[in-house]
Amino acid sequence: MSSTGGGADGRSDWAGDFACVECGRKRLTAAAFSKRSIERHRTANVPLKCTACVEAAAAKERAAAAAKAAAAPAPADGGGGEVVCSACCKPRPAGDFTRAQLQKGAKARCGDCVAAAGAAAAAAPSDAWEARYKEAKEAARKAEAVGTAAARLAAASKVAALEGERVTGLKPVVLGRGGRGRGSWRGRGGTRGRA
Q: Which residue stretches belong to region Disordered (predicted)?
């Protein structure tokens, strides 16, 4: 993990180890991708597309669908071809929905509602992380001012764990709780076969 400069909040601008196959940007942090795409990349080596490229492709698809719907002639049966969006509860032309959404029937959402939900989902993890990071930095500042060495270490460790989570996309693991640590039968040189 390298830093290339300081931010306004004292945080470094991090460089990660991920690359987007769509835009070609390299050394991106895990925060530039969805959690699901990072998991799929780690388990099945699926190429990564950053959230900006995914959203741009979705916007392009929505614009193409809207243009196609505007160019299409009105239905001959006079039905209007309207579908009620399950999110905004407004009747919308069928062209405002993707084929996948139309197949959902009563649960179909229009392109605008899908885009709004996608933007909110992309911003929510970042906002939650920012809040946790700000809280941890404040706790570290207080510990530096009046805390013991153990309190300063604990506060600094929490900040470092959050920064690592931002870059790698991996949650911190707390060691020493069960498993092969101290107090485990596996950690005592093997107790199998003892009477």
A: 173-195
